Amino acid sequence: IPFKIGQPKKQIVSKTLEDQTKKLHKDMKKSTEADLMSKAAVKISVDLLSNPLCEQDQALLDSMTALDTAMRRMDAFNQEKVNQIQKTVIDPLKYSSVFPSLNMAVKRREQALQDYKRLQSKVEKYEEKEKTGPMVVKLHQAREELRPVKEDFEAKNKQLLEEMPKFYSSRIDYFQPSFEALIRAQPQVVYFTEMHKIFSELTEQIDQARLTDPERERENEARLNELRALSIVADD
Questions:
Q1: 47-87: per-residue pLDDT in tens?
Q2: Do residues 35 and 81 lie in contact, with contact meaning Cβ atoms separated by under 8 Å?
Q3: Out of 5-9, 115-119, 166-170, 188-192, which region has the weakest mean confidence (pLDDT)?
Q4: Contact, 60 vs 54, CB < 8 A?
Q5: Which domains does the chain have, with CATH numbers?
Q6: DSSP secondary structure string, the chain?
Q7: Which of 38, 182, 185, 208 could, after both became Cys, cross-link 78 (CB 3.0–4.6 A)?
Q8: Residue 69 burial class via C-beta count within 10 angstroms: exposed 0-12, middle 13-18, buried 19 and up
Q9: Does pLDDT of 186 surpass 70?
């Protein structure tokens, strides 16, 4: 427990939870940003589809149309996934707004502890002195000054000792429904199955010739040789 006098300071559980919450929020934001990269893929497919070469080559037009359709399907599916992550995980992480007030309570408790230690040391110093009349008066005044400060510290300390473990334990009750909702709303198996389906269909539409890898390499090499034979291409 990090709130007992005389013990070495430890990482406060709220700080650990705060760091973990920030990391989770950052990771989920990165996930949504990665998914939204599909919008860039849609833009590329649109640019390719509008290329004048598509007007001259029906096969190329068909391939680019298939690519554009696949990219739009992928983008729609990714957008749905992003919306679910936003609703089930990112929005609930507003829970982290409690940390500033919690950290302030810890700082107030720390300040109360320092005041308590300072006055306690003052009392102990007077207690060691010879009990003359003036010294007895000073000791009495120091004890009276210490009493409310000690009570204030003990009250703050007691409150944190009671509330911090409850707060830390509540993280499970708070985050678990969010992840359950995310998993049920957008199972990863379904997501990757859908992505596999989209690109499998795209491959079938574009690669109608069903060429093997060696055959495709020979075809590409033949086309490169044709380009090299053009007078506008400089020799290596």
A1: 888 888 778 888 878 888 888 888 888 888 888 777 777 77
A2: yes
A3: 5-9
A4: yes
A5: 13-186 (1.20.1270.60)
A6: -TTSTTSPP---HHHHHHHHHHHHHHHHHHHHHHHTTHHHHHHHHHHHHTSTHHHH-HHHHHHHHHHHHHHHHHHHHHHHHHHHHIIIIIGGGGGGGGHHHHHHHHHHHHHHHHHHHHHHHHHHHHHHS---HHHHHHHHHHHHHHHHHHHHHHHHHHHHHHHHHHHHHHHHHHHHHHHHHHHHHS-HHHHHHHHHHHHHHHHHHH-TT---HHHHHHHHHHHHHHHHHSTTSPP-
A7: 38
A8: middle
A9: no
Structure tokens at 233: 């291409």
Tokens encoding 189:
């198996």
8 φ, ψ (degrees, to nearest 5): -65, 145
